[in-house]
Amino acid sequence: MxxxxxxxxxxxxxxxxxxxxxxxxxxxxxxxxxxAHGWAAYKMGxxxxxxxxxxxFNPFAHxxxxxxxxxxxxxxxxxxxxxxxxxxxxxxxxxxxxxxxxGPGSNLLMAFVFICLYYIVLLLPQNLxxxxxxxxxxxxxxxxxxxxxxxxxxxxxxxxxxxxxxLIPSKTYFKxxxxxxxxxxxxxxxxxxxxxxxxxxxISDLLMKVISFLPSLIYNLIV
Length: 223
Description:
Distance between the termini: 29 Å
Number of helices: 10
Low-confidence stretches: none
């Protein structure tokens, strides 16, 4: 959901919840995403991120200005990627796949936690403050799922491309990487024009249903 569409809704609780949830994602969830990459790489044998001080919860060690602006405006953004040296992995193929999946995996885990908190809040007596908190957790979960889906797209330099890179011939992958800068520009244009909104939203909605199944089932049993 774009910030403009939220502002047009005219609902104060919704507007403040979206803004604060995105601030929370920028200063908490994006750093954890990058920390997860760095931690996984370290466990697989590459200490590059550790040596550069990237194994930290400090958001200012991870944030990217343009990626932050994108997240506020469009709900999808990115942080400064953790550097990885595949030659340091004990098993380069396994190491790169595990490291690449660690970031999106952390987003899905956080989304599950937030959706559980959302249903817990729904059990409370409802008022404006409770509605704000419920919206907050709901949007924090939604943004995390969207970030996971976005990062798993098999498009350089996203995490999904790193997984695909070790499943296709190296020669083919390195040829694709030669055009990474142009692919990134095209990716940003697709985001700005909204072309990617529909596929990302469809996959995100499906994942949200999967993640919400158990918490919503428990909630419905309680109420």
